[in-house]
Design brief:
The chain has 376 residues and is α/β, with parallel strands linked by helices. It has two domains: 18-243, Type I PLP-dependent aspartate aminotransferase-like (Major domain) (Aspartate Aminotransferase, domain 2); 246-313 and 352-375, Aspartate Aminotransferase, domain 1 (Alpha-Beta Complex), CATH 3.90.1150. Helix content is 39%, strand content 15%. It has helices at 18-31, 39-52, 63-73, 88-95, 115-121, 141-150, 202-211, 233-244, 246-263, 292-295, 299-308, 327-330, 339-344, 359-375, and strands at residues 8-9, 56-60, 79-83, 100-104, 126-132, 154-158, 166-167, 170-171, 178-182, 195-199, 270-272, 286-290, 311-312, 348-351. The strands form four sheets. Strands 2-10-9-6-5-3-4 form a seven-stranded mixed beta sheet, with helices on both faces. A three-stranded antiparallel beta sheet has the order 11-12-14. The protein is globular. The chain starts with 7 loop residues before the first strand and ends with a helix.
């Protein structure tokens, strides 16, 4: 029988070397420069640009604000195509700016945005596409880029899950008009709370830097509508500290991923999403799919059973943005065109990983999942 004094959560933060963080914090206090493009923020932007192989990294206070500014800076309006299988912030970032998110389906083979669904839903009001690299696995960037170019659409990628991942050997961060990252505490790389927009477009990067600081261009000149989207120095200090140990965090995730693969191999009705190991991955999301017809139980049955044993799993992403407000009321029949989203949102479950859990504990967790079948 499974026994543990610990409770395991989805997204428990990775924390780098505390002494290094405190050293940076002391230097911030010595400089008395807490925000407004301080030394740590500038250094973090430089290091992230180098790591991602992209010309510009514009650090911001969180990923949602980063996405909102990316959308506005790219001049999106009217309708924008976006997968419903994503965190609600992706849709809200559009709606907050009076843009209509038009939800498109996912490909069952990848669980990412389906280019065929995108192509079908383009109309005269469509101005852009927001692709989401779900679970850190890049979506079909080439096909989406071709669709965007042929239809004169802006293309942004929500890369909140994909920091450190690659597409055809190149790090995520350089694609589309820009890409948007979240550095929230739950991510493989965190700055407590934070985000960034990355791009190779000089003019877009300049515009984003103005917009994140109220639109100020010089001491007394405002040239854009802007907000306070700046990252604070303490967040950047956390980011610099965690960046130094990023590869350690990813290796822990990789080992955990393989422990889950071994532990859940040949379990009826349970499949674990696959990472292409010819590419770079962050392995941050351990996602299982429960086929009730084969397993004999539902995803929610298993979730409740795990919770009773101290395993707090999450339904990533349920029930789909199209079934949340205000979108459900605005388009109550959206599910008809989203059959894969409707099906998989009821099957997917995220399991704990990261520095909180080790291979032996994962083995016990997998045994617990196996034991659930025998109790039905």
């Amino acid at each position: 029988m499974y026994k543990s004094d610990k409770t395991f959560f989805i997204g428990r933060p990775n924390i780098g070397n505390r002494d290094d963080f405190y050293r940076r914090l002391d230097s911030i206090f010595e400089r008395r420069w807490l925000t407004n493009e301080g030394e740590c923020v500038l250094e973090l932007e430089k290091e992230l640009s180098r790591y991602l192989g992209v010309k510009h990294c514009v650090a911001m206070c969180n990923g949602t604000v980063a996405l909102e500014l990316a959308i506005r800076a790219n001049g999106m309006s009217g309708n924008v195509l976006v997968p419903s299988m994503t965190f609600i912030a992706t849709a809200h970032a559009l709606k907050w700016q009076e843009i209509t998110p038009v939800f498109v389906d996912i490909k069952p083979s990848s669980l990412n945005i389906c280019p065929d669904s995108v192509q079908r839903l383009i109309d005269e009001n469509t101005t852009g596409i927001v692709g989401v690299h779900l679970y850190g696995r890049p979506c079909d960037i080439d096909t989406l880029s071709d669709i965007a170019e042929r239809n004169n659409l802006k293309l942004i990628f929500d890369a909140a899950h994909a920091f450190g991942a690659s597409y055809k050997g190149e790090k995520i961060g350089r694609y589309g008009n820009c890409e948007v990252f979240s550095f929230h505490a739950t991510k493989v790389f965190n700055t407590f709370e934070g985000g960034a927009v990355t791009t190779n477009d000089d003019e877009l990067a300049k515009k984003l830097r103005l917009m994140k600081n109220f639109g100020f261009e010089g001491e007394d000149t405002v040239s854009h509508i802007g907000i306070n989207g700046k990252m604070a120095e303490v967040n950047a200090a956390m980011g610099l500290t965690n960046l130094e140990q990023l590869e350690d965090f990813i290796e822990i995730n990789r080992v955990n991923y393989h422990a889950y693969r071994g532990g859940l191999r040949n379990v009826p009705g349970i499949s674990l999403i696959h990472y292409d190991e010819d590419e770079a991955n962050n392995y941050q999301y351990i996602i299982i799919c429960i086929d009730q017809a084969q397993s004999g139980y539902s995803r929610d049955d298993l979730k409740e059973y795990l919770a009773a044993h101290g395993i707090i799993a999450r339904r990533y992403f349920y029930p789909g943005c199209h079934k949340m407000e205000p979108y459900n009321s605005l388009d109550p029949h959206a599910g008809i065109r989203l059959p894969a989203t409707e099906a998989y949102s009821k099957m997917m479950l995220a399991l704990p990983t990261g520095t909180q859990i080790c291979s032996q504990e994962i083995e016990s967790l997998c045994d617990l999942i196996k034991s659930f079948k025998s109790r039905q």
